[in-house]
Design a protein that fits this description.
The structure is a homodimer. Chain A contains ten helices and no strands. Chain A is mainly alpha-helical. The first copy, chain A, has a domain of 153 residues: Orthogonal Bundle (Tetracycline Repressor, domain 2). In chain A, helix 5 runs parallel beside helix 7, helix 6 packs antiparallel against helix 7 and helix 8 runs antiparallel to helix 9. The longest helix of chain A is centred in the middle third of the chain and has 33 residues. The two termini of chain A are 28 Å apart. Chains A and B meet through helix 7, helix 8 and helix 9 of A and helix 7, helix 8 and helix 9 of B. Chain B binds a DNA duplex through helix 4.
Chain lengths: 235, 235
DNA sequence: TCACGACCGACCGACCGTCGGTCGAACTAT
DNA sequence: ATAGTTCGACCGACGGTCGGTCGGTCGTGA
């Protein structure tokens, strides 16, 4: 075994570049390496601007290896989004179950928690629209499909508690979520600070209205929605 | 001069295919040919599935000609969307100016009018999400940017007339428009007939609520919103 | 009046670099 | 041995470029 290592090492030493190292890893480890790298690159350079070769170079694997784990570049996108989504949904679910929060507080808390590690948050991606259209559309769809049931349960709880009131709980949630996600997508619209503030106010106000909630019971901390970005780096 | 024509004609006649004809046209004529063809193909096969070569073949021009008129495939997309948008906004504007309609009626009329020639309506495009993400994102953004001011004026008129009432007229319009467009995008979500009906009801209901409009003053004809395929059963 | 040649916008299509994806050989661990 | 991995040469399609062609027009001089 050690012999093998020596041989490999010497061979590698002969090459001036770091090429041609054959490194075997556990399935999930390798898969996650690819996913992590892809995620980083997608957020940094945009999806369509990220080449499969870019990922290859970064992960230090060959084309074949990549396609051994994923059948297409788009499948990687799906997986990246899926992972993000799961994490977010878990957190939302956790908030839903908390006993120390009122339904209204849960609603704002879910939003807060999702914003912290939402589909975006990185620094240098001022590259907008075209290169990420697919990515945005897919996450939007996923978030709505996944989050609506959770939020709906919270709303129904609120209705039972008498603090909310609406004939269309689920659809209301769907509508306001879709609007909020679409309109706050920096890739699609750009606002001044005031415009943004006004939009968020209006969203909170509308949600309160549609849910028949007491004025001010949601939001209030809307200013938190725009600042703050969660940083998470690793090596 | 006529000689030249003869030569060209004979040369053409020698070829079995319609190749190698040099046909000169006025700038705008040619440009619109390209645009028309591109629009058709984008709607038929989807944007990313449509090749520049597809367009070339259909219009019967060479690569160079295409790039003489447009600097990229995406620029054609923009132009196509722009054209659509202009047409739609004109119609909306026309509705806004009508004196024979109440503000509420204008609102529903605008929606109706846009649905008729909206970004979708064609026949065989069951090809969904990925190939049209860019197209959808771009039209969504354009429609919202263009339509919000018009709808807002209608709403403000309604407020002045005392039939609407809201502290955030423009933002309300923006929110509901974004939600409606996003959620009714077949490329992103698929509903059963009942789900769709319920969603549309909820949208109308929500809009009435947010605008402080009389219940039933908007919508009522929501069933028209889903027809558009020539299949109208229940009323 | 006409001929001619310079000019120019429209047009052509071979060619190019890049990219997503394939394939079969080769390596590793068991 | 063999199943699970990894490799990288290779492929075809695609968006885009480039040097050059064609034919109409217009100014000029015979």
């Amino acid at each position: 075994m050690n012999d093998c290592w020596m041989i490999t090492f010497l061979y590698y030493g002969c090459r001036t570049r770091g090429e041609h190292m054959r490194i075997t890893k556990e399935h999930d480890v390798r898969r996650n390496e690819i996913l992590d790298t892809a995620e980083m690159l997608f957020e940094t350079k945009g999806y369509s601007n990220t080449t499969v070769n870019d990922i290859l170079r970064e992960v230090n694997i060959a084309k074949g290896t990549f396609y051994y784990y994923f059948k297409s570049k788009e499948e990687v996108l799906d997986a990246v989004i899926e992972r993000h989504l799961e994490k977010g949904l878990e957190r939302a679910e956790a908030v839903k179950k908390r006993k120390d929060l009122s339904p209204a507080e849960k609603l704002t808390q879910v939003v807060l928690v999702l914003r912290m590690a939402g589909p975006k948050s990185e620094v240098v991606d001022e590259l907008h629209k075209p290169e990420n259209a697919l990515m945005h559309q897919k996450s939007l769809g996923g978030i709505i499909r996944g989050l609506v049931p959770i939020l709906n349960e919270i709303v129904e709880e609120g209705i039972r508690a008498g603090v909310f009131s609406t004939p269309f709980p689920e659809q209301t949630v769907r509508i306001m979520l879709a609007a909020a996600l679409t309109l706050t997508d920096d890739a699609m619209f750009s606002y001044t600070q005031e415009e943004r503030q006004q939009l968020l106010e209006a969203i909170v106000y509308s949600l309160e209205t549609l849910l028949g909630a007491e004025r001010g019971s949601l939001g209030l901390k809307t200013h938190l929605l725009q600042g703050e970005r969660g940083e998470e780096e690793k090596a």
